[in-house]
Amino acid sequence: MKNVASLGRRGNADAVVSAERDSPVADQFRVVLGDAVHTGDERWRYRCAGQAPRCALFPGSVEEVSAAVRVAAETDLALVPCGNGTHLDVGFMPRRYDAALATRRLDRVLGHDAGDMTATVESGVTLARLNAILAEQGQWLPFDPPRADEMTIGGLIAADRNGPLRLACGRVRDRLIGLRAVTANGEVLRGGGRVVKNVAGYDVTKLFAGSFGTLGVIVEATFKVAPRPQLERLFLWPASSIDEATDRAAAVLGSPAAPALLESLNGAAAEALAIGEEPVLVIGCAGSEAEVAAAERCVRGLEGGQALRACTPERGRAILRAVREFAPANDDERLIARVSALPAALPALLKRIETEAIGRGLAVEIAAHAGTGVAWCVVGETPAGLPVELFAEWVRIHTRELGGWIVFEGIPAALRDRLDPWGFSGPALSFMAEVKRVLDPRGIFSPGRFVGGI
Amino acid sequence: MRDGGLKTALAGIVGADAVVERATELRVYECDGYTLEKSAPEIVVLPATPEEVVAVVRLLHKHGVAFVPRGAGTGLSGGCLPIEAPVMICTSRLHRILEIDFANRRVLVETGVVNAWVTKAVEGRGLMYAPDPSSQPACTIGGNVAENSGGPHTLKYGVTTNHVMAVELVVPDGRSVWFGGAMEDVPGYDLVGLIVGSEGTFGIVTRAVLRLVRQPDAWKTLLAAFASVDDASEAVSGIIGAGIIPAALEMMDRLIVGAVEAAYHFGFPQDAGAVLIVELDGPAVGVDEQVTRVKAVCEKSGAREIRVARDERERALLWKSRKRAFGAVGRLAPNYCTQDGVVPRTKVPEILRRISAAGERYGLRIANVFHAGDGNIHPIILYDERDRDEVARVIAAGREILEACVALGGSVTGEHGIGVEKMGQMPLLFSPFDLGVMQRLRAVFDPDQRCNPGKIFPTPGGCVEVGMPRRQAAM
What we know:
The complex is a heterodimer of chains A (454) and B (475). Chain A is built from 14 helices and 19 strands. Helices cover 34% and strands 21% of the residues of chain A.
């Protein structure tokens, strides 16, 4: 959403026209939420895959969330649950979209006991705020998605978003141990609990990780948190190509270095992030001074490792920030693809993607969470249109041939209705559709947004 | 089912020698590690391939016959007890490790493969399969998937669900479907996460892709002896508070230490009120630093003695003593009943006090050996089954302890599952709505409740009355 000014203008113009037209919908919700129903410009902020809602709802309690959901269920209105909307552009355009249900007023940290290494929060707390609170006790929730200062915990779960740290710290599903969500009948569903080990009943928490607002409104979550490492240091290992940089990640992983993160960048990405102009492997090490020093020695001992450069703490932090913010969602000008492949297949795949893009006259920036097989590819500042569309299709076919997956988390506006953001099919899909029907039988939550149009 | 035609048809699929139907042989299958309730199946089939499983399940579907999947039968909550299910499908002949992908650290296995075989197959290349339930020399990957099994090293490495990437599930209508994938970030709902821990109520998992992890470069295992469980608990909090996450952090109280020492002669201090086993692993330099810090924490908490395992042999003996602690309990009493509850880690001293108080109130001896770092307690209540009054007190005390776990913010099971044992306790944790959603989710896979019926969910009549606690359990 780079072009905020133009969106604002569209919003203003539309608001005048639509305020009256939308009022019946908004009025339905005003009965239970009063002033917390907005119909003006603000609703443009909650566009989902290009579509704006008729109104935006800001319930201040779980009870108000339930009340709003009951209104929607009774009057057959469609809701898109969200936090601050950082990932609302991901997915198909919902078939119907009457109101955004934003959880940002549910912003209490409900419990953190450092000795338990768990934290329970309402879903509207931002990741940055939670981590500021946990930092007081030397702990953190070790996820590093883009826009952590805006991204709410509910959004983090629903978008299953992560960053370079996933290599060492895992994904949302690995740390989420409990959750409460308002489901389509307004009732609160509880999954898991507040303890780190718990096998009572089915693990319904897992369903919500990566569910993109299609199963209910996440209102509360409990996570396993972690001690913050004493020291974090960043190293740069220049390479001649993206495949070499990515290959080197495998070498580091095969050594005792135990890195916290390994990000391989192609030249275009390194340049965009102001790291340099050549492909590079960014290596993050964390731990005590002795551990970090040992890890550095270990990488230097690898073939070609003499070229390793240590960053000053200040430069390291700047690079880390840039890498983290590499591919934020909600970009309707660039194609942002999340590619996943077997880690050993990734170097060659990324090289092919880069070569193919160049051959088609496109500029592609690539940043890979190298050890995990997941990479972000961004096709930038070219006029969106046929070349990008054909390239997107080529990348999908080629990745699928390797058994991998590709999700377009950012799609240029001109291509929105021509590209399937998920590209998911297969026998598991019908089971997913059934799961959706269990929790949301009438399709009031983000209808049609998810894989296969679920 | 009762007609011979089905038996013949089953034998036609798996071979006559892979069908068990003689009453004496069926007794092997009448229970798992939860021996309190027993019920032999009418027939057991042992398919040798995933394709045979599909054919068997299709045949049962055609005849509307319910079945129960079983791995090695090491479960501890009666998860594979045949209830209203005449046929048992045993996965023990699905025992092939199909593909080891060292470069990507993945392994494709059939689900009758024994947990320990996986690590054995890859350790030569410096890898391991991290979840290590104490029954790992016997328990199968399929059973681990069903129960979402844990083990001592899950504090640092996570439980089964953190290491299963994909499963092939044969649902009760005979369809075989892969969920998840060998790659990360498969789009769609995380159904693998739902299937893991579903206690065999969705269908039979026939193959799985598991994640392998690098073996630590170094490890040190410490034994610290304390005057009391309170002192030991303080050390646990101190270690976590210092920002150290050990690979394992286990506690044993005086009663269990005495029994274990008599059985395995490790050299445990006999006068200690509690001992901690702390294992630290990772890069060598970090491990040495952590050992120093853990020692300091233990000393500050009043440790009387701290011993570091000198070599791999001593470490192995220490872990053998810990993992087979339950086997040693036979020295203390004719029978015992193990509970599996969880509390927030900081509530460990409180739950231990309540366990001790329950023991005194009911006049029972209770030993404790458990995953202190996870807050996952395993009180072992000792009794003699010939004393009917004592048996009744054991049941009451066990129930009270689990209720205390829930009251302290915990759960009624950390790794053993609900099975038939704890169906009555589900409402302590979940509302009728929560339970209703779970049952509707089950129906997505098994709408007629033909796979492992009668488990997990409390029956409408209320709690299942348990007449006697189980006699033995490993963990």
